[in-house]
User: What shape does this take?
Amino acid sequence: MAPLSQIIPSCLYSPSSATCSAFGQALQAPEQPALSCASPLFSLDSLADRFFQGDASSAGSSPLIPSASEQKIKMYSPQFYQACTIGGILSCGLTHTMVTPMDVVKCNMQIDNKKYKSISSGFSITAKEGGTAGLIRGWGPTFVGYSIQGAGKFGLYEFFKKYYADMVGEENAKKYKTLVFLAGSASAEFFADIGLCPFEAVKVKVQTQPGYAKGLMDGMPKLISEQGIGGLYKGITPLWGRQIPYTMMKFACFENTVEALYKYVVPKPKSNCSKTEQLGVSFLAGYIAGIFCAVVSHPADNLVSKLNAMKGASVGDVVNEMGWTALFTRGLPLRILMVGTLTGAQWGIYDAFKVYVGLPTTGSAAPPEDKKTGLPIPSA
Assistant: This one.
């Protein structure tokens, strides 16, 4: 595996980064001195070692997330939920940042459809007025906000799915599995959105109001000075209205689509499929789920964009200004493209990370477990 410092831009972990020392302190064991960004001990590669291989300098130290070859993670153990949380951070943070240009155009089409009349003209106008920087406006709050959201969305989903399945019993969990998926995903997203909301508010301001702020570091203080802390959560109700149905559809549709693909499309059971084949199923099922997610959550997405762009506006004001037809359709084609790509990539990254640490991919029949260790028996 290539060193992380060759993959991630140095600006994300340079000594000038304000968050660097905080990460170092959070990852350091309590009895050890806090890491400093200026210290040669701090690097992305050593950080990766702490997550995946442990700290070789500390006797008896064990990794937070072991590599796949070690396969030390028991299903539903604390390490299992740690792995799912980190996989969620990677899947949501990276993918939402990746589609920032589409998000910028989509938000502007929702706010000002007279100026941004189509997808092509939206990209053209945005690039002409702001250049490349204009197309990636708001990538900072996007990356941070959706990384936080991904941690809650995926990590808590695995927790609540198991919690509700245990609550109703094995027989009912199998009989009403879709209800378990829906309840687990709704519960997870409720908490995930509390972490996302402040960053979503800043993101929309930066993306739809040129000159408002350069990004997260100046955008959030400005928004707080104008509207107070409450301004960061002005859009929490429509955000729940957008994200909870979206996530319920995302997880329930994905889980059922995976099962259907293995049953009707893939010519062999999941246990006989290679990891590459399983990850292909994950991506395809994720993309299909993403299309349904976009349609279900689009009206609320329009509300979130408008509320964060229009100072003092209410939900009623937005509906009166846009009309019901525009509320359901404005920017929908681009959002289907964006969300389908996002969701497929998220499930691909999430399950790839789970495979890397020795866990099975999500959905369909659970793999058999070793009765002595409680570990999943790996497929081909």
Observations:
- DSSP finds 15 helices and no strands in the chain.
- Confidence is low (pLDDT under 50) at residues 1-48, 50-62.
- Residues 190 and 378 are 33 Å apart (CA to CA).
